[in-house]
Amino acid sequence: MKFWHIAVKDLKVRVRDKSAFVVLLIIPMVMIIVLGTVLNWAGSSFTANVTLVDLDHGDMARHLTQDVFASPQLADLLVVTTVPSEAEARTLVEQGKTGAAVIIPAGFSSGVTAGTKVSIIVLGNPDTPTQAGVIRNIVESFTAEVQRRQLAASIAIRALQQSGAVPPQRMQEAVQGVVAEVSTSQQTGTVSVATTTQEGVKVPRALDYYAVGMALLYLIFTANTGTEGMLEEQRQHTLSRVLTTPTSRAQVLLGKLVGIFVIAALQFTMIIVLTRLLYRVNWGASVPAVIVMAAASVLAGAGLSTLVTALARTPEQASSVGPAVALIYSLLGGTMWPVYNMPAWMNSMSRLTFTRWSVEGFTSLMVNGGGVSSILRPVGVCLAMAAVFLFISLMVLNRNYR
Question: CATH classification of 48-197, choosing from 1.10.287, 2.20.28, 3.40.50, 3.40.1710?
């Protein structure tokens, strides 16, 4: 149990440091409330965001995109975005960046002219049902008008065919008959709206998201501070004196790592508890799931900081490189802005960081609930990264700690 005595000693040293309290708790709590309030993405005025995909480029498609969605009457209601592909539109809906996507398929205009069955696809975002409903109603009104015109043309042609010819004096009467029949006909039109709800990404409120983000960012900072002490002890030859006692190098390293983990875990736990009590942050309904996700995150954060320290040569080098690595790593991993607003290339790169997986795990608990089984993937990735970080760190430290 010698490693535990070493861990307790490091913990006592950190507790006596008054500035550590500011870094461990005060600054993260201030950053959470500032970012969560200032960068709150909940809007106050109503507008419907619609994404248009015109795969047809025919007259009827232009009528919908230009005369309907781009009309002055809807300018204050709609924010219209045009994208070239259905896949891109589905991605925007999935990421919650648009209220609904309207997809006009290829051959739509020619199908309307020929009287064949055609459909306009409306993908609704489940998180913005009001916006999706408004956009769906607009498209359905358009298709209803198209159906009426199709029906009127069909009736007129049929009447002409049956009569063979219409004398000029009877033309007005024929037109009136067509209009009357259009008004009362129950014939089903050939244009339909295929509506579906795209499975979107549920997101927590800004304050909840930044509680996770800042907890992860300052987790790395805290672990960095703990690991820097290892280099300072090496410089002051404290380690060499300890190794002259019946204490193995493995016990010393294990004690140091346990101390770093305990300090980081205490900070993370305090942030979770205080944000829950003071800011009403919803960390999830399952306490065991929150504990498991937090433990995996702390292990990964401690492993990353230990790796940075192991590769550093001096305490000064670690103190300058460590914060830089923490900031870059955290920015890429989504602690400073929502991961679902990242561009595609950054979204892919962020998955190389444990913070991205930790954010996914915690936000999943926040918005979907669930227990430990619902976060097995992010927990597994964080633990795998922690294992890699710690294995490399121990190899380097075992070589350098002599």
Answer: 3.40.1710
